[in-house]
Amino acid sequence: MISFLTRLLGHSSGRIGAFIVCLYLAIALAAWFGLTPYDPLKQFRIDRLQGPSAAHWMGTDMFGRDVMSRLMIGIGQSFLVAFSSVGIAALVGTILGLTAVWFGRLWDGVVMRLMDVLLAFPAILLALLFITVVGPGTFTSILAIAFVYTPIFTRVVRGPALSIRARDFVDAARTFGSSTSYILTRHLMLNLVAPLTVQVTLALAWSLLTESGLSFLGLGTQPPNSSLGLMLADSINLMEMAPWLLIFPGLTVMLGILGFNLLGDALRDLLDPRMRRVAA
Amino acid sequence: MTQLLSVQNLSVGFGKGDTIKPIIRDVSFTLNAGETLAIVGESGSGKSVTALSINRLIDYGGGRILDGHIDFAASNGRTVDLVTLAEHELERVRGSEIGMIFQEPMTSLNPVVTIGKQIEEVFRLQGKSGSEARTETLRALDRVRIADASRRLGYYPHQLSGGMLQRVMIAMALAASPRLLIADEPTTALDVSVQAQIMALLSELQRETGTGLIFITHDLGLVAGIADRVMVMQAGQVVEQGAADQILDHAEHSYTQHLLKAVPHFTNGNHVREDAPRLSPSAANACLSVEGLTVRFPATAGLLRRSIGAIHAVESVDFDILPGETLAIVGESGSGKSTTARALLGLVKPTRGAFRADAQQATQSQKPMQMVFQNPYASLNPRLDVKSLLAEPVLATGQGITKDVQARMVSLLERVGLPSDSLTRYPHEFSGGQRQRLCIARALMLDPSILVLDEAVSALDVSVQARVLDLLIDLQKERNLAYLFVSHDMAVVERIAHRVAVLYGGQIVEIGDARSVLSNPQHDYTKKLIAAVPTMDRRREGFKLNLEAVPTLLRPAGFEPQPAEWSTLAPDHRVRIQPAANA
What we know:
The structure holds two protein chains of two kinds.
Chain A: H1 2-10, H2 12-32, H3 67-103, H4 105-120, H5 123-134, H6 138-165, H7 168-176, H8 180-191, H9 193-216, H10 228-235, H11 244-271
Chain B: E1 3-14, E2 21-32, E3 36-40, H1 47-54, E4 63-73, E5 79-81, H2 87-93, E6 98-101, H3 105-108, H4 115-125, H5 130-143, H6 149-152, H7 162-175, E7 180-184, H8 192-209, E8 212-217, H9 220-226, E9 229-234, E10 237-243, H10 244-249, H11 254-262, E11 288-301, E12 306-321, E13 326-330, H12 337-344, E14 352-357, E15 369-372, H13 386-396, H14 403-415, H15 432-444, E16 450-454, H16 462-479, E17 482-487, H17 490-496, E18 499-504, E19 507-513, H18 514-519, H19 524-531, E20 554-555, E21 566-570, E22 573-576
Parallel strand pairs in B: 3-8, 3-9, 6-7, 7-8, 13-17, 13-18, 15-16, 16-17
Antiparallel strand pairs in B: 1-2, 1-4, 4-5, 9-10, 11-12, 11-14, 12-20, 18-19, 19-22, 21-22
Helix pairs in contact in B: 4-5, 4-7, 5-7, 7-8, 11-16, 13-15, 14-15
């Protein structure tokens, strides 16, 4: 574990990615414990739509709320949704993809056709459908986004898994009499780490976008709570009058996604034994 | 003879800027028109880099020519230095002046374009019109002896066998009648009998057209059959070059001698192993006996997957193996030898038949049969370290990794000749030969009594191959192991086998002790296989072309072959009696 951390810090993009992700986590935690400059819900009626100043570093919004405080709360909210939904999607998608490959035939056909049907819908439409059935809220938007991105993970897992299954080391494992679960986890899963990490980092970015879309439609995070997507959505009409409302959440999303992508790249490299330098 | 190509002091490096690393240094040779130069060396010796430098394809592989000249006598009478030639001029030279054939025909052809179209492209590039190009294409296919050429034009690469595809590649390379042809291991991916065909074709075409040929190979046996001159490379440098006879008979450099010694010479059964357990009076009972093993795959056709019969991959195969004995199964690809091995290991479900494998000691922790696969690069999970790899067979039997098991890992690694610090390393840190040793160690973890070796040394360099074979023989003596050795390489078989079974079309056509079968083959197919083996003693002996089609194994539903009739030649040598029509 320690050696893994030192190797992560030795990796140039891993270092930057890890720093950004840790920073975001720290901010989200601070906001969770109420360590924001102001109460994010408090409305400073006189100071509405003020630009960045010493009192309000990132300005105030149309209700006179402190943008920085709301941003800190929003980071936690958005990344909670992104992480949980991508986590669920990756888990369910991988299990479905692997079992489809391993058990093949009927199960493969049923799973993959179902996933194709789901893939045929635009993401936001499918999420809308899901939320209409279950009802709006943070938890349901997590489930909805997970539901939308599961087929992508299933597809991403199934392709490489099919080719890995045909490799000799899987045959070798079968001649030893290794159990199905051992082969699935040790031989297939381990070799799927690279495509999965890439997919996870991409999906994190998409899911942030989907979450903001849902919030914009009033089906994700409910006001007066805040999320990055909600803040972006609210700022669009005031873009010319109060650009800071757009710029700060926008930069936050951008930097966050950059951080996850860098970290994802680094993890993919570090988890691959072939990239490890041979100890001289 | 006129000089066609002269390479002087060629050095090629890989890498960028300051970190450029020379791969080949100071290579010089010349080639005359109509002459064949063989470049011989093991993997990593720089032989392919040398070849790719000549047509400057090396530029696309990340290499850079650091120093030297490559003077090529072009067809317009001028001599050009290929090293300094600009890219647009090189494009004219490649293909029309210098043709190239690659090792793997399956990957060198575009899978979604018919072979006819692909050959036509070459003629179109020469400015020929559509109908002209088509007739030329037909002629080109005829020239490489592809029967029924007009129909084959519409075939896609996957519909043709490896040997056929390599012929297509040759047809393409020769389409522009180049003055120089570079063949980079053109037969390595092919069977012996197909290999002989391709060699025959190359030498015949060369005689017809007077093309200069650079033939790259790791197989000195092939060199004897085709080369006028030989150049031996090691670690990026030329260690020896000269006339073929000179090099093969009076090699001066120690590395050449080493290579020559390592090449398994096929001697028609004169050097088989003498320690056959079957001959000793105290012969034990068979530890593996197979009776009537039959594997059939259902064959379907059309959209509705209508059953059209079955592929009879393995048909009523019987044999037994004693402890300490090696039975080699030989045959060309598609003869069912790998399927037989896989059926024994439970990777393929036999349709019929039974086999019985006995453990040496009846303990829980044992599995009587283990397998070593052909490709050591594919049979080890790249994500697991050696310790996890070796642990797998043990874990599979439901045991934990105890101190005993760990001690066993260390001693087995030591036994197969791997460094003691290997446990924490990953497969990519080992060479091909070391990986195969690792596979052998892994197969021995459960103390089996039978090892199934499926082409286990075919993917290795000759000198590595020799050492792995020695290891296998030593291990066999130490542990009284029975080997089922599947191979297409007769020379290797002669070296390790006590008995040989020849498989043809899924059936054993000849089986018996190695000396008898190899020195006195009776079945036509066995004779053909043995005749196709390239040996040192057959210099420039024209390989004969054989246009016979490979028999199909597809049989109509419900088809049952005639029970085999055998004639016995010697106490341990049986031959299937051939129907008179085939004789």
